[in-house]
Write a structure and sequence with these properties.
The chain has 8 helices and no strands. By secondary structure, it is mainly α.
Length: 190
């Protein structure tokens, strides 16, 4: 069962769910070829720096898991993530100010900032936060992919509990924070 939980956790990692959202929203507003630049920007500006941090921390033994499972590991994760998303906000402002990418980046920045601010007291599940953010954005935007994400959220919650990464409260806070950010993104994209 632990292997299944690990597979679910990897398949629904925030890196994956964000790319799913960018592709699904892009298809709603154009074609795959018009979505590709946004996917590349998100991948290189936001995801790559965080992935390099995670890889470095795990390989050097400074983190026990790729999830930054201990609360003490989270400030570095949040710092690099916030800087990377801020870089994506700057890119979107300069290159694509009218795209749905900009409100999405601002919403994600807000989500990460809130999670960082409360990290002293609670380690919010970023898997659940990003899963519910993506679900809210896609359902509110009329994408069927959002309903698929909604159906997967219980399995994701189970996997995070099975792997002993979070408590029910941390999962619930992640869902609430993510849903709020997702609604804000939807409102921002008008």
């Amino acid at each position: 069962m632990k292997t299944i939980a690990q597979i679910i956790s990897i398949a629904l990692h925030p890196f994956v769910t964000i790319v799913v959202m960018v592709i699904a929203r892009g298809w709603q507003h154009g074609s795959f070829s018009s979505t590709l630049p946004a996917v590349v920007a998100v991948g290189t500006i936001a995801i790559l720096p965080v992935a390099v941090l995670i890889l470095y921390k795990v390989l050097t033994g400074r983190w026990t898991t790729v999830d930054a499972a201990r609360p003490i590991e989270r400030p570095t994760l949040y710092g690099v993530s916030l800087c990377a998303v801020f870089g994506l906000i700057l890119y979107a402002t300069m290159k694509r100010p009218d795209s749905v990418l900009l409100p999405g980046c601002v919403g994600i920045f807000g989500l990460l900032l809130c999670a960082w601010l409360v990290n002293r007291w609670v380690k919010i599940s970023l898997h659940m936060a990003f899963g519910s953010l993506v679900t809210a954005v896609l359902i509110a935007g009329g994408s069927i992919v959002g309903w698929g994400m909604l159906a997967l959220l219980p399995a994701l919650a189970w996997s995070r509990l099975k792997l002993k990464r979070h408590t029910w409260g941390e999962l619930a806070l992640g869902v609430i924070l993510g849903a709020m950010a997702g609604v804000a993104i939807h409102v921002g994209t008008g």
